Description:
By secondary structure, the protein is an alpha/beta fold. The chain has a single domain (14-171, 215-318, 356-429), classed as Rossmann fold. Helices cover 38% and strands 13% of the residues. The protein has an 8-stranded mixed beta sheet, sandwiched between helices. Strand 9 and strand 10 form a beta hairpin. The longest helix has 24 residues, at 94-117. The N and C termini lie far apart (43 Å).
Amino acid sequence: MPAHSNGSANGAGSGSTGDANRIIAIVTGANSGFGLGLCHDLLANLSVGVGQRVPAAQPRPTAIAPRLLNSETKAGIMPSPHPTLTLILACRSQRNADEARAKILEQHTQDLRMRRSAGESIPPGWEEGLRVESELVDLDCVGGPKGLLSFCQRISAKYPHVTSLFLNAGYAAITEVVIPRFILQILTKGLLHALHHPRYNTEEIGARSADGERGRVWGVNVLAPYIIAKELAPMLRKSPKTLPFEPRVVYTSSIEAEAEALSANPKDDYQLLEYTTSYRPSKYMGDLVMTQLDTQLSLDERPVRCLIAEPGCVATNIAVAGLGAWQWLVNLKWICYWLSFYLAHLLGSPHHPVWASDGALPMLYCAMIASAYILPANKVPAPKMHVVARRFRAPTVKYGEVDEWESHTELAEFLADKCDAIRLDWRKREGLD
């Protein structure tokens, strides 16, 4: 690939040119897991030829609300002229960003080579126009040079618009994977249940952000996505209407994001500092906040939808901290961890797509599917698309909704208000207001 700019922290910001036919996508947590898989699939989908179907943009009967099944649109076809792409990897360290960028470009080069050898043509100018850049952000910090607000300010200064905002990064304060509990859950609930609803992880109680002001898990999984989406909403509204995809925010949820994870009075400890397990309720609160944002951002003259994707269960780095300190033992446990997920897939579990790129399918679907196939926010705010793994076949997507969202609208508004108060307070501290 002859031309790719290295948009590192000291790069030239080549995405700042006013290219109206350029898709600009941001992926948080792009260096591993679902984020890295998403980047691979994003390039594969957007490099199809003019007039061809974009695979992830095709409507799927299982992913459409029943009342919209008869909708018809010609969207999902790559238009002419073929759009170019700027992919922004939002990572915590430059090393992670550089490694991810190298992996993404190497994989894409191999994919294009295989497609050419199979007689498939690559759109003229695609490789020359592709830019894979990076921006540093620490989701645990609101202020400071690597904080959320600084990240959004840099994006707004360097780029003319944002088309797709993938809020994928997440955090779990797992301290230990308790093997005896794992075995007990297998014996009492079955292997598949143990692998998609784990109750054997020990999590740090009361973990706080680096500045000590917030619950860390809540801050990363709830507050950070809210702030980024809210701050970059004006950039999303600037996305040219001539592009094949509408401006969207896509939040990566979890199969464990369920209302039952909340305490009896969730407002009393909304930052989850007293919870024995904070990951599950944080992801559910993230879902609720997205329903509120979807309602708010859809009211503008240029609506921006906030959709939720549930990628299933694959072996990612989120549980590595609980595998121990001895590297050889961590490696052994990791192999067993991955093999157990693969076994679940072979046994027919719809929740285990095995590969991160397969789990990323609902994220791409949320970003690319035409609005004709999505219920408006005043009917169902932030619909939730689930991956469906299929043994020996490619995965698909299933329509869903946030668990018990209708009975938690007051909590959703409460959480969004708390997030916005923190955002506005930090804007004053950083001299932005």
